[in-house]
Specification:
Strand order of the largest sheet of chain A: 10-2-12-11
Number of strands of chain A: 12
Largest sheet of chain A: 4 strands, mixed
Structural class of chain A: alpha+beta
Distance between the termini of chain B: 61 Å
Strand content of chain A: 5-15%
Shape of chain B: elongated
Strand order of the largest sheet of chain B: 1-2
CATH topology of one domain in chain A: Alpha-Beta Plaits
Helix content of chain A: 25-40%
Number of helices of chain B: 4
Oligomer: heterodimer
Structural class of chain B: alpha+beta
Number of strands of chain B: 6
Bound molecules: iron/sulfur cluster
Order of helices and strands of chain B: HEEHEEHHEE
Distance between the termini of chain A: 91 Å
Amino acid sequence: MAPPENPPGAGGDVARPAEVSRRGFLTQGAAAAAGLAALAAALSPLRHLKEGDLPTAEEFLQKHYKEMTAAEKARVLGRIQEQVKKRYGVTSQVNDPPPLDGVEFVYGLNISRCIGCRKCVHACVAENNPSRAPEIQYIRVLEMEKGSIDVETANHRYDASQVPRPDKWYMPVQCHQCANPPCVKVCPVEATWQEPDGITVIDYDWCIGCRYCEAACPYWARRFNFTEPQIEPDQLNPDLAYLSNRPRQKGVMEKCTFCLHRTRVGKLPACLEVCPTGSRKFGNVLDPTSEVHYILKHKRVFILKADVGTLPRFFYYFDERGSRYHDPLEGAGQATHGEGA
Amino acid sequence: MSFLRSFWVPLALLAGALVLVLDPVPFVSPVARPVPVPDWATNTNPVRQPKLVPHYVVAGFTYQCSDCHRIIPSPRETQRRLTQHTDIELNHGLNTRCFNCHHPHNRDAFVDDFGEEIPWNQPQQLCGKCHGPVYRDWEHGSHGRLNGYWDAGRGPQLKRRCIECHDPHHPPFGSMTPAPGPDTLRMGPSLPPGHEGRRDPLRIYSAQAPPTASH
Ligand code: SF4
């Protein structure tokens, strides 16, 4: 660290032992002081630590979700409930609904009907407690030119006064819950995995925030908490689940879970319930009477980026040509109440 | 001078460390306040709330359709200007006749292809007269809205009828104002309306820079 004392050939001084050692002492002393100060500076963020920023011993020793016994799980759920109460002042219900037997979820989206209104985006935010600022949203509604499907040039920041725009079409994208999920394969600590009902989940307490999965996902479905998530207490949805919408902490990954706290108790996902056009379809693909089963069997279906081999459980479909009656009929009179109108 | 020359490295380190420890420049987060989301964006009600009963409201009084139509017969030919119900503008493609849908004798019902009555609360039977493929898709759940439970064994399913989304006199699903778009970091002012390009990440640091000309 210290500069070389009296570099050879610097000229002038002829080194005398006593002086040199004094200078050396000062140099090294100053360097040591600087080092200590630098250490203090490096540690200085610790001064801003708030209560709750550091994990408690219990949190630190918590096991992986899959290794927890029922009793340990119950304790953890209780702890989360307390933390939510402390942090937001909200009385919540933290559950851990198990996957249902004989159920595999799939999601269908009718691109003939979606008008790009983004209601699904905000219903999802209201349901799943992601950070409001910085903003985390699981659903992106892509706007593309009619006649093309180029997601590279798609625009999800469109700001039209009215949608749908006549020369555009809309394709919402969210987690595809792949049967062959690249995000799960890359996770170095197995903090994310696929459940028996097809939902890929994240243990937010196990995630180390390396963001490999975000990079591996071909659908840009994963979102990272770069800062402490901000949610107003009155915006917090108190119906929580360990693997889905419980409040996250800084430095962990999150994504769409098909609203598993709703869907595993039989309810429809929030994005589906709010869609004004009925473009969104959800259900158990193993049930031959389900809507999604009918759609997969009878409609024209495609999956996004089929060539990457992810086998998504989220598919797009469209209706027969001409079944959109708002496509104007050529030559049809716009007659209203008769000849004069 | 020679002192400075010999000690500049530790001095620089010290100065840097002091800056770090004393923290004279406060950290300003570039994350802006959350923007409020309008309530309609999360409202799960369908776009229309039809009554599904043959009622007509005038001046605060509710009448059964047949209250008037029992007494006052309508002319057979309907390709004419209406003298009543002038708020209705029939704009339903090639379907320009009232009695294609409304029962000619019992105004509390719709009419099927054989002149029989279709109850007022079963509009899908009426619409299915012409819109076969859509009716088929609606029956199987590929068209239309469902609310409540995907698993009928666990809770109620609310299957929305045609006219809860479509105005029968003007059926195309209307356009609407989209809910606010993403602004990932909620940093700085959002793009001026009409601007479709990407955000310029540098623009947020020159807060006073005028917005790029919108087109
Ligand atoms: S709410 Fe429905 S219509 Fe609106 S953008 Fe989402 S999928 Fe499309």
